[in-house]
Design brief:
The chain has about 240 residues and is α/β, with parallel strands linked by helices. The chain has a domain of about 160 residues: Rossmann fold (3-Layer(aba) Sandwich), CATH 3.40.50.300. The protein has a six-stranded mixed sheet with strand order 6-7-8-3-9-10, sandwiched between helices. A four-stranded antiparallel sheet has the order 2-1-4-5, covered by helices on one side. β7, α6 and β8 form a beta-alpha-beta unit. It is globular and about 50 Å long. The chain starts with 11 loop residues before the first strand and ends with a strand. The relative contact order is 0.19. It binds adenosine-5'-diphosphate and magnesium ion. The site of magnesium ion has 2 residues, from α1.
């Protein structure tokens, strides 16, 4: 359990306070986020929805330390990541956060196993432990039989499972997924969503998924709606 006195909410995983992100291109300014306030409790499977261009990716990237807000505070498990420099953010992302993207982002020349193991190698994990962890994560996503196959030999759903195994490899407390079902048919999307649900239940993680897929509503604990760079409403689902 993470307790930190900076946290207004002791059991919160993600907390933002008046997040603004203004992009400057030449003399043009675009405010992608306009004072976002949100709070997501530990162990929640949360969806972030909203139209294309509403700021979902920008917000997810700020929460994951891939982008920095122009102003405002972001606390992840009580740590104020907006105050960190690039070096500390990079290390934190590598050690503590799992990322999953729409296009899977697997290395084509590596097997499923090697794709997962690479993340651990980059984090400096020793060989024996790498073997053990990669094997375990591929088992969690149901790909043990496919671990020696390369991405092009796998279906879209299987490739996304490899990406999920890879995101789980460093044992993150936070997993961020940007439109992870965007390239999958609806039956496969359901399988992936139910795998996410299982992971949140069993692995003690908080998972935030960006999507505009209406399928997610029956899988997540809460839905946040982003509209024109602001949180429009929040639904706590039963
Ligand atoms: P979503 O993921 O909901 O589709 P984005 O976060 O990608 O929305 O984009 C929000 C707004 O910010 C859009 O108007 C988009 O054009 C703008 N935007 C996003 N990234 C950049 C960037 N790197 N430079 C300039 N404008 C950007
Ligand atoms: Mg987006």
């Amino acid at each position: 359990m993470y307790m930190n006195e900076n946290n207004r909410y002791p059991n919160s995983a993600i907390e933002t306070e008046e997040i603004w992100r203004i992009y400057k291109t030449g003399s043009l300014e675009v405010a992608a986020l306009k004072g976002v306030n949100l709070q997501i409790a530990q162990g929640t499977f949360a969806a972030l929805k909203g139209r294309s261009g509403s700021g979902k990716t920008t917000l997810l990237n700020c929460i994951g330390g891939l982008d920095s807000p122009t102003r405002g505070k972001i606390r992840i498990f009580g740590e104020e990541i907006d105050a960190w420099n690039e070096r500390r953010l990079t290390q934190w992302r590598r050690d503590q956060v799992g990322f999953i993207f729409q296009s899977f982002g697997l290395l084509p020349s590596l097997s499923a196993f090697e794709n997962v193991e690479l993340i651990l190698r980059m984090a400096g994990v020793q060989s024996g432990e790498r073997q053990e962890k990669a094997t375990h994560c591929l088992e969690l996503v149901g790909l043990t039989r496919w671990q020696d196959h390369r991405p092009f030999e796998l279906s879209g759903g299987q490739q996304q499972r490899v990406a999920i195994a890879r995101a789980l490899a460093n044992d993150p407390k936070l997993i961020l997924a940007d439109e992870p079902t965007g390239e999958l048919d609806s039956a496969t999307a359901r399988e992936i969503l139910s795998l996410f649900q299982q992971i949140v239940r069993e692995q003690n993680v908080t998972l935030l998924i960006v999507t505009h897929d209406s399928l997610v509503d029956s899988y997540v604990d809460t839905v946040l709606y982003l509209k024109d760079g602001q949180i429009d409403r929040t639904n706590q689902l039963p």
